[in-house]
Task: inverse folding
C-alpha cells in the first residue's frame, strides 16, 4: 500500500512538472510580440526630414558644377579635387572612379542618393568623435562634438564652403582648423571613408601571408634536403654494414686458417719427436745387440 502511494505521488509530481512546462511554453508563444514592420524611408522623403543636410549637398554640388549645367562631369570632378581639395595625383584617379562609377554626369539627386545610402551618414556620435580624433587630428573639438551630438548626418554641413555652422555652432575660431575639417569632411561625403586601420590590417595580413609562404617554401626545401641527407646517410650506413660483414667474414676465415696452421704445426712437432724417439730406440737396440754380442764373445773366449 505504501509503495502504491509513493508511486502515485511520484507520478503526480512528474505530471505537475510537465503541465507547468507546457503552460510556460504556451505563455511564451502567446507573449511573443508581433514583428514590427520596417519603415522604409526614401531619399525624397529624407530631403524633408534632413533639409539642412540636403541643402548642404546641393551647395557642394553647386561648387563642383563649374559650368552650371546641373551635372558634374569627370573633368569638373578632377578639377575640383586638384584645385579645391588640393589632392595628390596618385589619389585622384581612384577617387574619381569611386565618385562617378559608370555615371559620367552626377546630378544633385544622384549626389544626395549616394550620400543617403552611404554608411558614413549613419555614423554615430562616437564614430564621428573617433574620426575627428584619429583622421582629422583635431582632438580639441571632440568634447564639443559630443556635447552637440554631432553624428554622420552633419558631415555635409562641415563640408560646405560656407563655414557659418563651424563658427557659430562648433565655435571653431581657427581658419586653419576649419579648412582642415572641411577638406576631411568633403573627402568622406564625396568619396567615402577609407579606414586606414583596416588598410594597415590588410598590409599586415598580406605581409603575414608572404612570410608564411616563404616559411612554407623554406620548410619544404629543408624537408627535401633532410630527406636527401637521410637517404645518403642510409646508403652510407648500408655500405658500412656491408664492409663490416666483409671484415667479419675475412676475420673468420683468417682465424680458421690460423687455427689450421696451428694444428698443422703442432702435428709436425709430434712427428719429429716420434722420429727422434724411433732413432733413439733404434740406436739403443743397436747398442744392446752390440753389447750382447760382445758379452757372448767374451764368455766364449774365457771358456
Result:
Amino acid at each position: 500500500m505504501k509503495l502504491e502511494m509513493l508511486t502515485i505521488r511520484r507520478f503526480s509530481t512528474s505530471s505537475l512538472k510537465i503541465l507547468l512546462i507546457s503552460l510556460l511554453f504556451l505563455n511564451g508563444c502567446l507573449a511573443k510580440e508581433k514583428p514590427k514592420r520596417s519603415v522604409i524611408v526614401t531619399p525624397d522623403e529624407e530631403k524633408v526630414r534632413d533639409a539642412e543636410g540636403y541643402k548642404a549637398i546641393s551647395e557642394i554640388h553647386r561648387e563642383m558644377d563649374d559650368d552650371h549645367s546641373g551635372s558634374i562631369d569627370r573633368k569638373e570632378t578632377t578639377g575640383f579635387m586638384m584645385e579645391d581639395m588640393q589632392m595628390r595625383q596618385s589619389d585622384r584617379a581612384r577617387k574619381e572612379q569611386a565618385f562617378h562609377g559608370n555615371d559620367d554626369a552626377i546630378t544633385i539627386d544622384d549626389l544626395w542618393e549616394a550620400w543617403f545610402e552611404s554608411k558614413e551618414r549613419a555614423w554615430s556620435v562616437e564614430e564621428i568623435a573617433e574620426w575627428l580624433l584619429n583622421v582629422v587630428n583635431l582632438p580639441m573639438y571632440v568634447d564639443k562634438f559630443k556635447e552637440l551630438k554631432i553624428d554622420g548626418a552633419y558631415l555635409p554641413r562641415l563640408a560646405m564652403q560656407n563655414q557659418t555652422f563651424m563658427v557659430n555652432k562648433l565655435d571653431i575660431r581657427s581658419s586653419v582648423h576649419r579648412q582642415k575639417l572641411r577638406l576631411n569632411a568633403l573627402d568622406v561625403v564625396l568619396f567615402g571613408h577609407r579606414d586606414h586601420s583596416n588598410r594597415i590590417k590588410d598590409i599586415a595580413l598580406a605581409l603575414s601571408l608572404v612570410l608564411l609562404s616563404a616559411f612554407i617554401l623554406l620548410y619544404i626545401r629543408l624537408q627535401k634536403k633532410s630527406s636527401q641527407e637521410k637517404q645518403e646517410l642510409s646508403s652510407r650506413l648500408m655500405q658500412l654494414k656491408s664492409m663490416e660483414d666483409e671484415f667479419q667474414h675475412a676475420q673468420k676465415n683468417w682465424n680458421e686458417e690460423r687455427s689450421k696452421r696451428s694444428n698443422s704445426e703442432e702435428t709436425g712437432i709430434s712427428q719429429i719427436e716420434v722420429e727422434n724417439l724411433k732413432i733413439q730406440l733404434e740406436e739403443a737396440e743397436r747398442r744392446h745387440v752390440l753389447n750382447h754380442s760382445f758379452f757372448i764373445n767374451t764368455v766364449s773366449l774365457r771358456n
User: Anything to note?
Assistant: Residues 1-12, 30-37 have pLDDT under 50 and may be disordered.
